[in-house]
Amino acid sequence: MWQSSNLSLLSSVQLFLQGLGLLSSPYLPLPACRTFPGDEAWPKEDVWNAFNVSVDGRLIKTIPVGSPCHDPHYNDEACKYVKKNWHQTEMHIAHPSSIMDAVFLNKSCDPFTPRESPCYIGSYVQYAVNVSEPNHIVKTIDFARKHNMRFVVKNTGHDYMGRSTGAGAISVWMHHLKETEWFDSYSSPGYKGPALKVQAGVQGAEVNAEATKHGHLIVAGECPSVGFAGGYIQGGGHSVLSSVLGLAADHTLAFEVITTTGKFVTASPTENQDLYWALSGGGGGTYGVVWSVTVKAHPDMPMTKAQLFFNSDGISRDTYWEAITAYQKIIPSILDTGSFLDSTYDINKFRMDPLIGPNVSAKTISSLLTPWIDKLNYLGINYTLNLTEHAKYVETVADYNNFDIMGYQLGGRLLPRSLFETDQGFLAFMGAARDIVDGGAYVWDIGLRPSSSWEAGRYPNNAVHPEWRYAERMYNPVLFFDDSDPLERIWDDQKRISVVFDQPLKQLSAGGGAYANEADPFALDWKNAFYGKHYDRLLSIKDKWDPDQLLYGTIAVGGDRWEDMEDGRICRTI
């Protein structure tokens, strides 16, 4: 009742200010809320049918992926399949409305709730358009605007920040846009060389496969199923190649974009430069709907991969942490070679899986690991070490599988190189790391140095968070939950991440930044954490290219102009 009254008051204030000519911003017209199912203004069935004809019959009404697990459509065999594959990417990628983060599904038609529980669409979009041509996007945007509906862009649904779904929304599903084009000699004012153009539905593994056919590689993500042209590259995009080639966004040459005003435009260093700048690292799903991206390609190179595993069986807690401390001490020298490290650990197990050294020999990697190995032997810790050399990038990352999804929540911060250059900084980091792990978190600890490939101060002119240019680590606390856990427990865990685990990391980084695709989606300082000093410029670009504010995400630029209400609809804020 308070929310409803508050919104009525908001509307009255807006009308009064508009009457005085004091409110002219394009994002504060009436009505105050997006139209929602059950509202009088929600489109009737005949309107949906007519719209379906206009998009060539490609409109899909959402049937939640968990619906076979609930009455009246219960199907035991289908339900078992859904439960078995709930934590795998493939099922959600192939579904027009499903996403890979259970937190933002809010238990909507959850396959693990009782069969007799109602199957609500809830946080899923109401409808999706299976896009095959630009006009499908234009028509959907026009429909959303005309009916004041929430609008969402989805490719794979690999999104931990809640941008690929939305209660009461209509979405464009980009997944089947799979065309690629190879350029042996792409020419633009700032670059001449090989390049690859990919449509919005192309995934990381497909990017890698296309590049390797031509003897090249692309800066792409570790997870092979991630959509390349969407939130990944638009959010910056880290990679196992980042210490030698920078971030994915550092290699963009051009975007093709459908704007929310219905135009198909090119954004590049010479056309619509502001939009190009924003799309190159300023956050996904915010400024326009990306149809394709063209990126630089680089000659393939040999690589070394190392993996090392041990656990805490038979050793004290202090001994276990001595081993992890010894690992942390060798990381700077490994990063000096242009290598990348991906390690995970909790109170029981440690995994470095993998270390990847582009153009670095196994002999060099072995030498760099020796002080750590000697320490493990001295401590009497049993470990498994694998060290292999590969001729090509795709061979190196061939067993980099899709990560388990759905059952965890993330925090995380970028930690600067300067933190690890003094004994005081290193000890402070180790103290925080141990507190986080002993507090029950699992840690995802990425070692990379995206600035290594650029001369000091000569980074690409893009919207990548400035803190990436000084980063040495991406450090992410993780809390797991069971599929059957109640929402209250899940939200309590998220608060622990925000308050207990992320705050010490924020202090270590002096405020610092975070990777806008893999961090705490409820960070109170999200503007600084995800965009830094670029935020105000990005906001002005958004207002230019999305004047009706159709593109929305809670942590996207301009996200605080909207509020999620209790029933799931979004309403404007002052």
- Integer average pLDDT: 93
The CATH class of the largest domain: Alpha Beta
Q: Provide the gyration radius in Å.
A: 24 Å
CATH architecture of the largest domain: 3-Layer(aba) Sandwich
Task: Quickly give the structural class.
Answer: alpha+beta
Distance N to C terminus: 19 Å
Shape category: globular
Number of domains: 3
User: How many DSSP-defined strands?
Assistant: 21
CATH topology of the largest domain: Vanillyl-alcohol Oxidase, Chain A, domain 3
Low-confidence segments, ≥5 residues, pLDDT <50? 1-30
> Largest sheet, if any?
8 strands, antiparallel
Folded structure, characterized:
It is a single chain. The chain has 3 domains: 45-173, Uridine Diphospho-n-acetylenolpyruvylglucosamine Reductase, domain 2 (2-Layer Sandwich); 180-300, Uridine Diphospho-n-acetylenolpyruvylglucosamine Reductase, domain 3, CATH 3.30.465.10; 303-532, Vanillyl-alcohol Oxidase, Chain A, domain 3, CATH 3.40.462. It is 32% helix and 21% strand. It is built from 17 helices and 21 strands. Strands 12, 13, 14, 15, 16, 17, 18 and 19 form an 8-stranded antiparallel beta sheet that branches. β8 and β9 form a beta hairpin. α11 (317-335) packs antiparallel against α12 and α14 runs antiparallel to α15 (487-508). The two termini are 19 Å apart. 48% of the residues are buried. Mean pLDDT is 93; it is low at 1-30. Residues 120-300 form the FAD-binding PCMH-type domain. It comes from Gymnopus androsaceus JB14. Residues 1-21 form the signal peptide. One of its GO terms (molecular function) is oxidoreductase activity.
